[in-house]
Amino acid sequence: MPTTQHAIRVDASGGPEVLRWTEVPVPAPAAGEVLVRTAAAGLNFIETYQRSGVYRMPHPFIPGSEGAGTVVAVGSGVGDAVSVGDVVATAAGSGTYAEFFTVAVDQMLPVPDGVDAVTAAAIPLQGMTAHYLCRSTFLVEPGQTVLVHAGAGGVGLLLTQLCVAQGATVITTASTDEKKELSRQAGASEVLDYSGFASRVRELTGGEGVHVVFDGVGRDTFDESLESLRVRGMLVLFGGSSGQVPPFDLQRLNAGGSLYVTRPSLKFYTRSAEETRWRARELFSALDDGSLTFRVGATYALAEAGRAHQDLQGRKTTGKSLLLPQ
User: Fold this and answer.
1) For residue 207, what is the DSSP state?
2) Cα(43)–Cα(45) distance, rounded to whole angstroms?
3) Can the peptide bond before residue 60 be classed as cis, meaning omega within 30 degrees of 0?
4) Is the pLDDT of residue 113 over 90?
5) 281-285 — which CB contacts under 8 Å span 24+ positions?
6) Label partner for 270 (CA 20 to 30 A): which of 65, 117, 155, 178?
7) What CA–CA distances, in Å, run from 38 to 58, 65, 278?
């Protein structure tokens, strides 16, 4: 085992240029943790918030919570839950923008035979996010109509497929013809432009509005997302790729028809090993039977994490983007 590794380190908040490719020690797994040799790390919007200072982080730090690879060492107390040589994935690792990372055993997802480690790295965060959104935050049921923003994004493509599988009609938004076609391929019945989408949603639903809006865009879509809801509908705000939503008057929910707004995050929907592995089992099972497909839209060398962040924030990516150690 080497004692040092290459990793992306952030010494101070800032733009993509603060993502520095440097040499750091290989971490040792603490009690209840395993050490994983990284096959691929997932690229996610939350890391742009952490890098830029929207979310406060202790400096220096190595970004990344999602990744997959091979277990190379185990800490005390792990027991027989995992062995050296096992292929695992996680959405809750520590510092996955690196050649090695650690993860608590209760947040580790065993990767089934037939799924390679790079593919597995594309599943945990966006896959389990899509799963908790439509299976727990708002239980999507047959006959409902839902609106999914950024339908060609990593979560959007998965969420659309899962909602369609639950018997719902899915309307999405997308910004380009290419992205619109990807969203249709995932099962969207209608794909709308962002401009004026609320009035179009009303037309498509006979004036009623949708049962739920899944909104990971935030500031730019929030107001029209509220306008798109039917009476007692729910706006699930799970991200802010366009910026954070400013404070708003709660009376708008009353005037709109006793509406609901919630701001969930994955960590509160994976609070136990049982819940985490239930979500993973359903996702891997859907992947195995072909009812769910994962699109890896782009791969980057880990050393080029800065360029990957630029592309992600510039909305140049579709599907899932991965960072690969060299």
Assistant:
1) T
2) 7
3) yes
4) no
5) 282/131, 282/135, 283/123, 283/127, 283/128, 283/131, 284/111, 284/112, 284/115, 284/123
6) 117
7) 23, 12, 24
The partner residues of 169 in beta bridges, in order of sequence, read 145
67 contacts 42 by C-beta, under 8 angstroms: yes
Amino acid identity of residue 236, one-letter, is V
Compute the C-alpha angle 219/220/226, nearest 5°.
Answer: 80
Six token digits for residue 205:
């639903």
| Res 154: pLDDT | 86
Residues 133-174 pLDDT 10s: 999 999 999 999 999 999 998 899 999 999 999 999 999 999
Separation CA 34–CA 79 (nearest Å): 11
State CA 1 to chain mean position distance: 31
Domains of the chain plus CATH, in order, are 4-123+294-324 (3.90.180.10), 130-266 (3.40.50.720)
The alpha helices in the chain, defined as continuous H runs, are 45-52, 117-121, 124-132, 154-165, 177-185, 197-204, 222-227, 251-255, 273-289, 305-313
Whole-prediction pTM: 0.83
